Amino acid sequence: MKHLLAILAATTALAGAASAEGITQFNIGILGGENAQDRLNSNECLRKYTEEALGVPVKLFAPADYDGVIQGLLGGTIDMAWLGASGYAKVYLTDADAVEPVLVKANLDGSYTYHSIGFARQDSGITKLADIKGKSFGFGDPNSTSGYLIPSVEIPQATGHSMESGEYFGEVKFTGGHEQTIVAVNNGDIDAGVTWADGQGNWEDGYNSGALRKAVDAGLVDMNDLVEIWRSKPIPEGPIVLRKVLPEDVRAKMTALVGGLKEKDADCAYGVAAGETAGFVPITHDYYETIIEVRRQKIASGS
Question: What are the boundaries of the signal sequence (predicted)?
């Protein structure tokens, strides 16, 4: 991680950092969830539109894990990112003045929540949480809301046991990201895991948006081979954030660009939003106060 951050810092230092006088480069961070090249491809259209809007070189960064984007925002080497709610909570609890939430992805019905989805192979015989007792279970990334934070709270409430290996599940593993969890379950490397989806539309499509939809689009899985075994309560969709030190006109231009992306280029919005979306709508910090408190309590408890 230190090596990655050093590369990001050096790259941005050479290009010139954002300042009150203006910017000479703009950097967009992309959270993990699928392999780096697919993430870059899905967001290349946004990179080009951003270059046109700002008139400066724009680079995409797809670190190996969520913390690469989080530390980039905190350190000033990344200017904008679409974070999960838990990732935003980590940034805010580390430095409340680092970033500002400006937009959130809306589902086709206008809502902006999603779910952590527990799933297993169809042929495993696993259909509910009780069936995974003693078996292996996969989380994605420690800074993922749906891939760790929420299920690590709600599943123990449902089972009466902690998520520690040997407590209820035989072994609990971190796979590294949503795509890795999906592939690991599909391949039989782990018995079950969690990922994210809006929970709308058809299971066969991987729902309307989310990591399952992206995996289907990429040809990684056939949803008929998988089965949903658990679903969280609705989770606040994560925000698109901008660093607060960016010039006001830059923040205004980027908010307008992403806010109008669906109307400007529906295919681009599909790639950026990980599936079907009604577009990106305004959001404020207040929407995330509950998730911030959950993360604060997890930190206090040392879990």
Answer: 1-20
What tokens were used for 58? 């724009």
Q: How far apart are CA 156 and CA 38, in angstroms?
A: 34
**245 vs 17, 23, 74, 75, 185, CA distance in Å?**
10, 11, 11, 12, 42
Name the residue among 42, 59, 39 with its Cα closest to residue 267: 42
Model pTM?
A: 0.85
As given in the structure block, the two tokens for residue 147 are: 């891939």
Q: What are the two backbone dihedrals, phi and then psi, of residue 62, each rounded to the nearest 5 degrees?
A: -125, 75
State pLDDT tens for residues 232-271.
999 999 999 999 999 999 999 999 999 999 999 999 999 9
Average confidence (pLDDT) over 15-19? 39
Query: Can you count the helices (H) and strands (E) in the chain?
Result: 11, 12
